[in-house]
Amino acid sequence: MELTKVMEPLAEGGKVKTQASYKKLGKRLLRSKTGMIGLVIVAVVVLMAIFAPLLAQHDPAKTDVINRLLPPFWMEGGNTDFLLGTDNLGRDILSRIIFGSRISLLIGISAVLLAGAIGMALGLIAGYYGKVWDFIIMRTVDSLLAIPNILFMLIILAVLGPSLITLILVLGGTSWVVYARMVRSETLSIKERDYVRSAKAIGAKDFRIIIKYILPNVLSSFIVIATLNVATTIILEASLSFLGLGIQPPDVSWGLMLSDGREYIATSWWVAAFPGIAITVTVLGVIFLGDWLRDVLDPKIKD
């Protein structure tokens, strides 16, 4: 009974502290114009991807040669049935952009999660255990960094063939080195702190020390890098699809739309312009959000 009386105020105090932290976070977001812009852009793109079947007026894969290369509705020859015009096969560009957001986000987030998981695990092992583990992992990282990322991806995709799963595996499997280096660096510093030494002294197991004391302290930097790398991954996917080694028809992605429209830039600019704008705006939104997260999570930056 006495223990309950003692714990109740502590629990209430913890709730108040958490609520205060959320309020502080909200205030910092409202004060950051770029953070708000980034959050709005990312939220719109995510909602667009989720509700794509409801938002799109047309089937993104349906061809209509009678209405091919129609301009946007505000230009001469355009109509409101195809708000942003049509491509060389008569497919509605707006509907394809909406459905293309699904592929771009899926690849961007999945590849970052895969790369982050690999990099986090290897970085923790290299930083905590050191010695031979550190040598093997970091020499592997150095070897991968010596090869241009895009060249490595092109070689693998040319051998395995392009597909959604292959693209995610290639993008994730070649991007983990950034996380591994960052996590290793922070782990080397954190493992020398007093609370980690104390945990070792009382006989705590390595796995418990890593999960309970080291991992939470590297998560803030990890989240910031992961967020920014979503933008990089979206651009890489678009680049590979543009080169014909990414998403293949009948699936649709923004990079594939750019590739389809490059031959019509001089005569039908909208075929390539609108997918390019979608990529640019989305990447800027993710970067703005990542910058705001860095400002919030970096302990060196104070209000």
UniProtKB/TrEMBL annotation:
<dbReference type="InterPro" id="IPR050366">
    <property type="entry name" value="BP-dependent_transpt_permease"/>
</dbReference>
<feature type="transmembrane region" description="Helical">
    <location>
        <begin position="150"/>
        <end position="179"/>
    </location>
</feature>
<feature type="transmembrane region" description="Helical">
    <location>
        <begin position="35"/>
        <end position="56"/>
    </location>
</feature>
<dbReference type="InterPro" id="IPR035906">
    <property type="entry name" value="MetI-like_sf"/>
</dbReference>
<feature type="transmembrane region" description="Helical">
    <location>
        <begin position="105"/>
        <end position="130"/>
    </location>
</feature>
<comment type="similarity">
    <text>Belongs to the binding-protein-dependent transport system permease family.</text>
</comment>
<keyword id="KW-1133">Transmembrane helix</keyword>
<feature type="domain" description="ABC transmembrane type-1">
    <location>
        <begin position="101"/>
        <end position="290"/>
    </location>
</feature>
<dbReference type="Pfam" id="PF12911">
    <property type="entry name" value="OppC_N"/>
</dbReference>
<dbReference type="InterPro" id="IPR025966">
    <property type="entry name" value="OppC_N"/>
</dbReference>
<dbReference type="InterPro" id="IPR000515">
    <property type="entry name" value="MetI-like"/>
</dbReference>
<feature type="transmembrane region" description="Helical">
    <location>
        <begin position="267"/>
        <end position="293"/>
    </location>
</feature>
<feature type="transmembrane region" description="Helical">
    <location>
        <begin position="218"/>
        <end position="247"/>
    </location>
</feature>
<dbReference type="GO" id="GO:0055085">
    <property type="term" value="P:transmembrane transport"/>
</dbReference>
<keyword id="KW-0812">Transmembrane</keyword>
<dbReference type="GO" id="GO:0005886">
    <property type="term" value="C:plasma membrane"/>
</dbReference>
<keyword id="KW-0472">Membrane</keyword>
<dbReference type="Pfam" id="PF00528">
    <property type="entry name" value="BPD_transp_1"/>
</dbReference>
<keyword id="KW-1003">Cell membrane</keyword>
<protein>
    <submittedName>
        <fullName>ABC transporter permease</fullName>
    </submittedName>
</protein>
<keyword id="KW-0813">Transport</keyword>
